[in-house]
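Continuing from the previous page...

OK, I double-checked the sequence for Reverse transcriptase domain-containing protein against my notes and this is the correct one:
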Amino acid sequence: MQHCTWVRDELGHCRRNVHIKRLNYPIHQASGGLQLSVDLSTAFDRVPRWALRRALQWAGADNDITRTIEELHEQCRYPTEHAGFQGVLCMKRGVRQGCTLAPLLFTIFTCFLADIIGQRTDRQWMLEHLTLYADDTHASWEIRHGRDLRFVEHSIQTIYAVFQEFGMCVNASKSVLVLGLHGSVCKNWTHQRLQTTKQGKFMHFGSPLLPLCIPVYSEMRYLGITASYGSLEVQTMKHRLRIAAGSRQRHEDELAQSRTEKEFVLTFEVHGGGILSLMWGFAQAAQEWKKAREEKKVFSSLRLTLFLAFLQEWQQHLEKMAQPEAQEGAIKLGVAQRNAQDQSAVILKR
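Thanks. Re-ran it with the corrected sequence; updated structure tokens here:
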């Protein structure tokens, strides 16, 4: 964030309006900044054994601890069963997923890589402008002179070379480069490397034998913020609001199911002992819903489940009433009730 605001202010001073001219700001041939986000594919699963050993030795771990960690990973096995296949897979690289030691080991490994990058570029730049957090890598550069652009090219090539040297799979096409440059030297430097295609803009930092093409965007997402050289505060707020709205939408159904259901009341009247069988059916439906809900097999609410059970019970009752035997019984029951009502009316008249 501090880098973005500095570059934004520097680019603002380069706009030669009346106020800037009156403040007598000098005109620079090269000014601004760049930032790069590197995409690593399956970083935790790709750490080689020899690279992990070197990282532990670099961190000062003694031989016994290093040997114990190596044996722990060498003995790791994954029982596998899929589509009729059963077997055991040996873990030949990477850190153990789910192990409490894995985050510490990968942190040591990334610190080791950062130190290697600092040795091959500039240690002070590495400490101030290079961030390695889990499998996310962010680098930034502040441009004050034309020679800074040569350092940018060298350090980008070094970052990708170090990752590949130590077994990481770097996806340059999914990396992001954000430019905020001003001045004639920067314009010529960008013109020599920038290429526009149907897929977008790309900057070339490699050679014909080892191509390195990085997509260029006006902003990037990094650790929950929108990094750019424009209104990054507003862009970050809008980005987080979109994430919050998406999270709310995903959890809306689950929240609706957890609310106390007081808005649904169903009243009906039954004769005889039919109420007992109906309530027993509701109780069974509720028990089955609870079991399926715990097993994550159903996501509808209990209210909807009981209403559907009532409709099914009603449908079965109507189907039974449509049978000829049931119709004859209903007619006889209706005649008997009518005779009983007539007899009651005669008694009342007397």
